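Running low. Any example?
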Amino acid sequence: MTATSPTERRPAVYLAGPDVFFDRPRECGQRLKDLAANFGFVGLYPLDAVVELTHVQPNASISPAERVVIKRENAARIREANMAMIRDADAVCANVLPFRGPSADVGTAWKMGYAAGLGKIVASYSHNAQSYATRVLPDNFAVEDFALHDNFMLAGAQHFRTPETALQYILDVFRMRRETGRSP
């Protein structure tokens, strides 16, 4: 499965998804990075970013408005760190399982769009085989039914049932590009 020889640069794949919110998120990330390594990639997991956050003790004597400012500054730092990792990556492999609703995690969706806008290869996966339309509860609004795994804007990414098959797709694209003289 290895994508590169020892002298070639290993392509980097940003591993997006709500896995950072799961129980034992670092273990989830390590499993994904190990899978990426099996395909010859360097896996970039969001929690690997070095982000200097401001921590405030619950009983600290600061105003609620100051707490909000600190929380928003922390969020901006995390966002910028994730964006830098995506810019450094050659591709994105995204877990788009329905998360906190019928659709993919909104942060993951945003990262996929950001990567696509940068011209990165984007592949997604979800173990949920139901189409988006079947997961949406009736609510008197039209539901797009294109028989896709999620909103058709996200479904523009190549979609698979497992992270292994998504990573294999990315590897195949890199191989094709190398064969035609293009770098990852």
